[in-house]
Specification:
Layout: E1 30-32, E2 38-40, H1 41-49, E3 68-69, H2 71-83, H3 101-112, H4 118-134, H5 136-143, H6 147-155, H7 163-173, H8 180-187, H9 190-199, H10 205-221, H11 225-232, H12 235-246, H13 252-266, H14 272-277, H15 280-287, H16 293-306, H17 310-317, H18 322-329, H19 335-351, H20 353-361, H21 365-373, H22 378-394, H23 397-402
Helix pairs in contact: 3-4, 4-5, 4-7, 6-7, 7-10, 8-10, 9-10, 10-12, 10-13, 12-13, 12-15, 13-16, 16-19, 17-19, 18-19, 19-20, 19-22, 21-22
């Protein structure tokens, strides 16, 4: 097997034996298989998961798929990382041992037992959450037991007044995907939705985020329009989600959960006015530049959805950041983001002459022309053409004459 030892950006070459033979990357968790060959745990697990039953290097058939941690090699790799940290090499984290089924069962029994002390039940829930956060393998193992049923029972137990226990069960519950039946069991009981909406104004930002995450899971996992409406009609939920996005200490997870929840709540047209009343347009525009790719895409879809009702369109048209932020987004994040940014920009420019002037000042012509000629979606191209036509009809003549963008005016855009 040929190995290309490409240097790092700063000229540091990874030693041959520190690279995984499969990925050719620096090994973070080296493990040895029965043939004596060493691989990074993630790479060899993916190899086996794809149905391969041979050693990638030797080609020898395997009957034993045990992965033995190579602690000596891992320590050597960590030492090399520390020695080269001045060159931008980051130290690899120490791996955590996978959870054992017997430990998971013990912790679940402890958490659900009402004969145990409150503190021991809380400790069990916290340890389960840490295990679930350590790896997907742990999460899959814990999820294969009755962790969701136990967590739901603790969270909504009306006979319990231990709020810390409830909050820990909520934090554990949102680590897992809920089945539709579990979503229905929450959505069909108004008192449960009311309780979650109250938690969204808790003093702890973590409790608020976890409550919003559970509400988003329930809304997304429930097919019934009636149950959707039952959740979406709770005004406090919208205010809670917007407050999470407004928080000056919002973490990437807070922004992700807040945007996902707001998007899910804005899908039904009949309840979008509640998002407007909570101040969604302003916070969406204020936070758009802070979002990661997937979150930015969801935010732009939500903006377009809110622009489809008159009050929403007026709110975005009146916000100072709407036009410059949407122009800046075109062709900068993804094709999907470009499509929804162009659609929202077309909506506000159709609504307001002031927005059209702002688009001109923001030099929107060049990115729109590039969209038309790009491999973007057909809808993105269609919206870009419509916006070009709208701006062409209202573009100030003195601006046209002085704009560098019109140096390419010989380019004919079909409308």
């Amino acid at each position: 097997m040929s190995v290309n030892l490409e240097p790092l950006d700063l000229g540091v070459t990874i030693p041959y034996h520190f690279r995984c033979p499969i990925s050719l990357d620096l090994m973070h968790e080296p493990v040895t298989i029965s043939t004596g060959q060493t691989y990074d745990r993630t790479s060899i697990q993916s190899w086996f998961a794809a149905g391969n039953t041979t050693c990638p290097v030797t080609g020898a058939p395997l009957s034993d798929f045990t992965l033995i941690p190579n602690h000596t090699l891992r320590r050597l790799i960590q030492h090399w990382c520390v020695s080269n940290r001045d060159f931008g090499v980051e130290q690899i984290p120490s791996p955590t041992e996978p959870a054992h089924p017997s430990l998971v069962r013990k912790l679940l029994n402890q958490a659900s037992s009402e004969t145990c002390t409150r503190q021991s039940r809380i400790s069990a829930l916290r340890r389960l959450r840490r295990l679930a956060s350590d790896s997907e393998k742990n999460r899959s193992l814990i999820g294969s037991y009755n962790v969701r049923r136990i967590s739901l029972h603790i969270l909504f137990d009306t006979n319990s007044d231990c709020f810390e226990l409830k909050h820990e069960s909520l934090a554990l519950l949102v680590c897992f995907s809920l089945a539709e039946s579990e979503c229905v069991s929450i959505a069909s009981k108004p008192e449960r939705i009311k309780y979650l909406s109250c938690l969204m104004f808790h003093s702890s930002i973590d409790v608020r985020i976890n409550s919003a995450a559970l509400i988003e899971s329930v809304v997304s996992g429930t097919r019934s329009p009636e149950l959707h409406a039952q959740i979406s009609n709770v005004d406090e939920i919208y205010g809670g989600v917007v407050d999470i996005l407004k928080s000056p200490v919002s973490s990437p997870r807070a922004l992700k959960v807040g945007i996902k929840a707001l998007f899910a709540l804005c899908l039904p047209k009949q309840t979008r006015h509640k998002a407007l009343a909570a101040g969604a347009p302003a916070i969406l525009m204020d936070r758009l530049a802070d979002l990661e790719k997937c979150d930015a895409e969801r935010a732009l879809v939500t903006i377009e959805l809110l622009c489809r009702i008159p009050e929403g369109l007026a709110a975005f048209a009146g916000h100072a950041l709407t036009v410059p932020q949407l122009v800046k987004t075109i062709l900068k994040i993804s094709d999907r983001a470009t499509e929804h940014a162009a659609a929202a920009l077309l909506a506000v420019c159709s609504e307001s002459e002031e927005c059209r002037r702002e688009a001109v000042v923001a030099r929107v012509l060049t990115p729109l022309l590039l969209v038309v000629q790009s491999d973007c979606t057909e809808r993105a191209k269609r919206k870009a053409k419509m916006l070009l036509k709208l701006l062409r009809d209202s573009w100030p003549q003195d601006c046209v004459g002085n704009s560098d963008d019109f140096a390419c005016s010989e380019l004919v855009v079909p409308f």
